[in-house]
């Protein structure tokens, strides 16, 4: 069996990181959401891929309410972390953002998957964490240096 995985959730403030984790754990949207969820481990036997996964909540702090950009920093000589774009709060809009997002995803091979979800409606929550596991275990080619594969 593989080692465990760690899946950090990062974003600007108030997009619903803590709510997503709590909805996953309790299968219920939390009315009162703390700033930060406890670190949890999904045990191997309840995950489709049979790998224990630590989910870590990074709370946005008060200052990042004004953020206009998020910098995800990686080291160019060792880029092996797939990115998953998570569009939360899908319950608040009528139309899917997928049309806008998919071309971006196709352009950047580092983006492994995009998923629209709602912590409130419990839509795509377990799928989201499943995609995260899958991205680690079965990454698509381009992340791992296509030049070397040829
Ligand atoms: P920080 O820890 O401050 O960075 O915020 P966060 O990303 O953890 O967001 P949090 O879970 O605290 O949610 C922020 C607000 O959005 C709360 O009022 C939630 O109730 C609300 N919220 C979270 N998820 C959803 C969702 O799927 N739909 C709707 N309508 N509201 C949501
Ligand atoms: Mg939070």
TrEMBL record:
It is found in: Mitochondrion outer membrane. It comes from the Eukaryota. Belongs to the mitochondrial Rho GTPase family. This is Mitochondrial Rho GTPase. Atypical mitochondrial nucleoside-triphosphatase (NTPase) involved in mitochondrial trafficking. Probably involved in control of anterograde transport of mitochondria and their subcellular distribution. Can hydrolyze GTP, ATP and UTP. It comes from Oncorhynchus mykiss.
């Amino acid at each position: 069996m593989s080692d465990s995985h760690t899946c950090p959730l990062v974003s600007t403030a108030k997009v619903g990181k803590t709510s997503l984790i709590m909805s996953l754990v309790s299968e219920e949207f939390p009315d009162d959401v703390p700033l930060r969820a406890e670190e949890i481990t999904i045990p191997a036997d309840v995950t489709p891929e049979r790998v224990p996964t630590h989910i870590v909540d990074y709370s946005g702090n008060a200052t990042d309410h004004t953020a206009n950009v998020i910098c995800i920093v990686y080291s160019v000589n060792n880029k092996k972390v797939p990115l998953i774009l998570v569009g939360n709060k899908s319950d608040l809009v009528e139309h899917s953002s997928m049309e806008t997002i998919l071309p971006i995803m196709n352009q950047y091979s580092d983006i492994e998957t995009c998923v629209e979800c709602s912590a409130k409606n419990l839509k795509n929550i377990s799928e989201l964490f499943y995609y995260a596991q899958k991205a680690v275990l079965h990454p698509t080619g381009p992340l791992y240096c296509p030049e070397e594969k040829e």
